[in-house]
Amino acid sequence: MIILGVDPGTLFTGYAVISGVNEKLEMLCCDVIKIPAKNKLPIRLKQIYDSLVDVIEEYKPDEFAIETAFYDKNVQSTLKLGHARGVSILAAVNKQIPTTEYSPKEVKKSVSGLGGASKEQVRYMVCSIMNIKAESISKKSDITDAIAVAICHHNKMLGGGSKKKSSGSWSDYIKDNPGKVISGNRK
Predict the structure, then answer these.
(1) Stated pTM of the model
(2) Is 7 marked active-site?
(3) Which residue among 7, 63, 106, 145 is the active-site one?
(4) Among the listed residues 59, 52, 37, 46, the one whose alpha carbon sits nearest the alpha carbon of residue 6
(5) Pairwise CA distance, residues 60 & 137, whole Å
(6) Staple 87 to which of 2, 49, 155, 181, CB 3.0 to 4.6 Å?
(7) 104-112 and 141-157 are packed helices; what angle lies between their axes, rounded to 10 degrees?
(8) Is 9:84 a contact under the CB 8 Å cutoff?
């Protein structure tokens, strides 16, 4: 299954395409759509839409996952984020790709086990899960968050959603999630 994960924004939209078969995940591509702030909002939205359509046509994802909007104190920022989310979803829907939305807390919990994980914790876990070096992806959280959204969707598709009951013990977590455990000695 090929999943396109998106972290929308009107200046930076992160995206990641991963392939997942059972517990095995492979990164196909990840990048950020950078849009000049000088461009008017309608032009920025078209750039997001066109760029995601290009990614969809190249990688032909089976699923599309995106983060839900968070509510900021700045209403204008929240509205602009909603526009970026809308054109991102439209790109997937126009290509008839099933679309799912996840809250930031749900994404963090799926990747790190903590709904309140820091950006650094999410980045570390994304790199560990995907077996990629942190230096190979930008330090901007847009790409990391897009990868995390795709991983979250993969986990949900495998049945790793809220149906599983957590005992709270690390030994149970390790037993229930062997694909998320890094083996070997760490120094």
Answers:
(1) 0.82
(2) yes
(3) 7
(4) 52
(5) 22
(6) 49
(7) 80
(8) yes
